[in-house]
Specification:
By secondary structure, the protein is α+β, with helices and mostly antiparallel strands. The chain folds into two domains: 37 residues; 162 residues, no CATH class. It is built from six helices and ten strands. The strands form two sheets. Strands 4-7-6-8-9-10-5 form a seven-stranded antiparallel beta sheet. A three-stranded antiparallel beta sheet has the order 1-2-3, with no helix packed on it. Helix 3 runs antiparallel to helix 5. The protein is globular, with a radius of gyration of 19 Å. The relative contact order is 0.16.
Length: 210
C-alpha cells in the first residue's frame, strides 16, 4: 500500500463562512504530486464552496467580463452568438409584492430548467467578489436550503453555468438584465421567461448585429 503525505493550505473563502475551501497537495511514495480541491461544508448542505479565482478565470476568459457600476448600456460580458438577454425592469421596477413574486417565479423557472437539463450534474455559481460554489440542481430541488447565490441579480453580478459553460445565466443588477446562453437553456428557461418578460435592448441589438 502506498503511503500518501498531504499538505493542507486554505485558499479563498471567508474564515467566518460556514463553507470553506482547502487546496490539498498530495505526494505519493513515487514523488508524484497531485493537487486537488476539497470542499468542506460544516452544515453538510447542497452548496459547496470552491476557490474564487479558479472558478472565475474560465468565465473571464470566455466572456471578457468587465464589471462597471456606471456602464448602463454596453453588456458587461461578451455576448455569445446565440445569447438571449431578458429585461428585468418589469420585476425590479414593480411594487414590492410584484417584485418579490416575479423574482420567486424566475428562481423557480431557473431551477426547473436546470434540473430538466442537468439534474444531478454539478453546476458552478459565481457571485462577484464573494464566495463561489458548486451545487447540484437536483439536490437543491429536494432541499429546503436557500440559494446561496440567486439567479436574479438582486445586488451583484451572479452567474450560474455548467462546468464546461455550454449553457448558463448571467445577471446584471444595475442594467437589470438576465443573459441566457446555450440553445438548450434558451429553449427552456428563455422561452418561459419571454411569456411575461420582454427582451432587453441588448438582445435586440445583438441579434441585429449578428
Amino acid at each position: 500500500m502506498a503511503v500518501v503525505l498531504c499538505t493542507y493550505v486554505q485558499v479563498g473563502g471567508n474564515p467566518a463562512a460556514k463553507a470553506r475551501c482547502l487546496r490539498v497537495t498530495c505526494a505519493g511514495v513515487s514523488g508524484e504530486r497531485l493537487p486537488y480541491i476539497v470542499e468542506v461544508d460544516s452544515v453538510g448542505g447542497v452548496w459547496r464552496a470552491i476557490d474564487y479565482d479558479a472558478s472565475w478565470a474560465p468565465f473571464n476568459d470566455r466572456f471578457d467580463f468587465r464589471p462597471d457600476y456606471y456602464q448602463r448600456r454596453s453588456p458587461a460580458i461578451r455576448l455569445p452568438d446565440n445569447a438571449l438577454v431578458i429585461d428585468l425592469e418589469p420585476v425590479f421596477g414593480a411594487s414590492a409584492q410584484r417584485s418579490a413574486a416575479g423574482s420567486a417565479a424566475i428562481e423557480a423557472a431557473a431551477l426547473r430548467a436546470f434540473v430538466w437539463l442537468a439534474e444531478n450534474e454539478q453546476l458552478i455559481a459565481l457571485d462577484w467578489q464573494h464566495e463561489s460554489y458548486r451545487y447540484s440542481p437536483g439536490e437543491q430541488a429536494l432541499s429546503d436550503e436557500a440559494w446561496r447565490i440567486p439567479v436574479v441579480p438582486n445586488g451583484d453580478y451572479y452567474a450560474h453555468m455548467t462546468q464546461d459553460m455550454r449553457w448558463g445565466t448571467f445577471g446584471h443588477p444595475w442594467q437589470r438584465s438576465l443573459t441566457i446562453w446555450g440553445d438548450e437553456l434558451i429553449a427552456s428557461l428563455g422561452a418561459e421567461l419571454l411569456t411575461w418578460l420582454p427582451r432587453h435592448a441588448q438582445s435586440q441589438e445583438h441579434q441585429a448585429a449578428g
